[in-house]
Structures
1.
Amino acid sequence: MNSHSASLLVIFGATGDLAQRMLLPSLHGLHRDGLLPESLKILGCARSELDAAGFRQQVGEAIARFTPAAERDEASIRGLLERIDYQSADAGDSASMTLLGARIEALRSGDLLYHLSTAPRFYGPICAALDRVGLTDAGTRVMLEKPIGHDFASSCAINEGVAAVFDESRIYRVDHYLGKEGVQNLLALRFGNALFEPLWNARHIEQVQITVAETVGVEGRAGYYDESGAMRDMVQNHLLQLLCLTAMEPPSQFDPSAVRNEKIKVLRSLRPIQGGDIATHSVAGQYGAGAVAGVAVPGYVEELGKASRTETFVGLRAHIDNWRWSGVPFYLRTGKRMPRRCTEIYLQFRSVPHSIFAQGGAQTMPNALVIHLQPEEHISLHLMNKTPGLDRAGLKLSQVALDLDLNDAFGRERRRTAYERLYVDAIEGNGTLFVRRDEVETAWHWVDDILAGWRESASGPKTYPAGTWGPSNAVTLTERHGHSWRE
């Protein structure tokens, strides 16, 4: 543990859905494996009128519900609960914030980490209220959940509110995709091997596809989702972060400012999609009734209970106008109610310049590298191979995959959840895997152009049956350029 490890973690919104599903189970995993500083205390904070015993009971129930039985350990759950306290507070009520301030002062013995797991509109008011009670000194830092804003303007306003209290080096914006093992492995693959980096450019790569597909619908989040849609919920943060890590130049070293400096260059090189390009480079879809895994499911409008122009699918053809990637299309897509759940990055290399096997009728297919992030993390390199046989009518070729299955290779290593890694980094004061303000705002700027183009179009999102890969014009998006989605 370093000397700047936090002595107290204060979670605002500690009774909320994210805390129950992700945050508290992740803290249990870290406590069980001895990865939290021994002296660290955890203070849950929300508007709910609970006492400490009532909150501890909630924590126990959340861990029981969201942690696999094999990973639960009664002694470590008890140990975690001994670290935990609770204080009811409301940023708009100065008396309750004064009480919270006194509680924090009593519990802290060094650096202090706030995690704001609330609606983003409360970030500024919470930070201002903490400042008024004198709890934003140099030894404090703050974690913020996405989405930071609804568009460029609201993002700037929220960031300004937080920046009035905390300087940028103490603000840790969470994109939980950056905490995933496979996402960091993308950096190791690119920058730890001599094999790939010389080929990682427009001379050798024909196209890149980044897919985040979900089989689920909006579940209980229809109200939130109808306000945001797939573009704000997934593209502005997760997909653009994956694009940055795939496309960025090698940073000089693996530290927060070097990595983020290269990511922001990618975002600033994204060609705007506006005007006539809206129709040819972007697709919005909304799922109708259909079937996923053989089960009939209702359409988005039926689930929502009213008419809506909110997109549940986005397909984009993006271009990065720089030396490395000029002319290479980056196809991005994300959607709900897709045929299977997957998050993957697919890089298709250019074809061989001349096939010596064509006279015998053998077809070569381009090499491809596929980085699978969900549901399983593995990497496969697709290569041409001779099909076994005597080949009297000419040599035949087949594409085979060299697979690096990370579960096989590292079967004994426990897979860390994204929030376990992000919590350890934030507690220890390491910002590498968090998002800087200029990244958030530049991404919003690019996304806002597309959303504005959609608003001006009379048509609204195209319907696609649940259980399919999106509307038919998503296919056209790639095929008019001689490409096709990997399915």
2.
Amino acid sequence: MRKGMTLPLSARAVAPTKAQRPVGLLLVALPVLLLAWLIVYPILAAVVTTVFVRQPDGSSAVSLASYAFFFSDSYSLANLWVTLWTTFVCGVLLLAIGLPIALYLRFSQGRLPAYVQGLAIFPMFVPSIILSYALIRTIGPNGTVDILLNAIGLPKIPSPYLTPWGPVIGLVWDNLPLTVLMLTTGLGTIPKSSVEAARDVGASPLRVFISIILPRMGNSLLVTASFAILGIFSSFTLPYVLGPASPEMMGPFMQRTFSDLNDPLNALTQAVISFGFCLVFGIFYVRSIARNREVAK
């Protein structure tokens, strides 16, 4: 800034002073240290442990044998495939179910949308273990669904319990509240005046959605899908209780390898591989956030 020029009052209020900068750094230091201690350090330690393997004589040597075993073992690959399949199906179902609910909540008025929002958010307050056993009593063998079908003279249907569809049902139900909340927040940035103007010129609801709403929902859909996928890929309780024993998702697979088989090296290898897949979706999320900040500037 040239000599003689002064900042406006608003700019002077926003610009940090030299005394404020150390205070700001101290405020963010503790969260950053906790992040490094609880997340970054365990990840690096797991990678180092699986690459630099301790030998019988006490020395360490570079070895990728555990990774070679994972990608050559048919059972491990089947578990990885089931995890990817479950994550993909749950992500698609969450967007297919959550987006219409979010659209209804955003552009509707009255008491009914408030009740719908309450029902959509209710699973957020139900612990996963309680949800698991509630689903067993509902869709499991001789559960509520079977009792109702029998009462009206209809045959039983194959139960999704202990099949790959069991975790899908539980994970969709468990992650729906966060999906609806995030999509509703993203829709909140779309002004109703744009939608009303399109309706005034004769645009159909489908055209309004494709031409006005969907182009502005790109980042929200990406962030929502990233959060859902990261949570589903690393889930444990619902796949452990509702899913089959073989093949199984990566969460129960890691736990069984570590505790039942007493094989921490392969369990860490499975964790590192799972982190690698989650890192891809995490990069999409970080890039989306960075793009939003650039647009805001």
3.
Amino acid sequence: MAAILELRAVKAFYGQSEVLHGIDLAVEEGGMTVLLGANGAGKTTTLRAICGMVRSEGQILFAGRRLERCTTEQIAGFGVAHVPEGRGTFIGLTVEENLRIGAYAATGRPHDNMQLMYGYFPILAQRRRQQAGALSGGEQQMLAIARALMMSPRLLVLDEPSFGLAPRVVEAIFGIVERIRREQHVSVLLVEQNASLALAMADRAYLLETGYVVTSGSAKALADDPQIRRSYLGY
């Protein structure tokens, strides 16, 4: 299957500090790829480089288009939706207002997308007139994902979606993400602390350490690797 996203020898910088040191990475169209690694390994920086939020070198290709000199707004317009760590919802706005903001870059009809998101996340339909700041953590994460999907993206980039959430809520959210991937043919690039769950869902996986890719392969191969299991899965 063809790759919708490719990183080729990508470096990334904060000021003069080089944080990524020439990484290669690919996400297959319609597939799910997970990035694993300890805090400070460069996972979030990788997502920011893809989305034009940090200075980068090398090649970042999305559907054959070079991204590294594009703005974040242009990249979103091409079909890359980013859900950052911490969710980033507008807490003073209602659920429905947050979703309408997400529809700003949609190529389809926002009303249709709104009904689609309420179908995937029924609790948001019930809370549509509530302020986002009054939602539970799990509901806010659902809103952040739904808002990103309102723009009808081809690639969904998720940064630690399970952070701070109860296991049953995490399983529910991941189940919805997997359903959306299948039904809407959205590719997914995931940074996730719950390595066991992420590897069970993903097609491919990359392990980062201090800005380098040290291991990559099928998610099943990494899940079956004894060293990966000891270091990241806890058994």
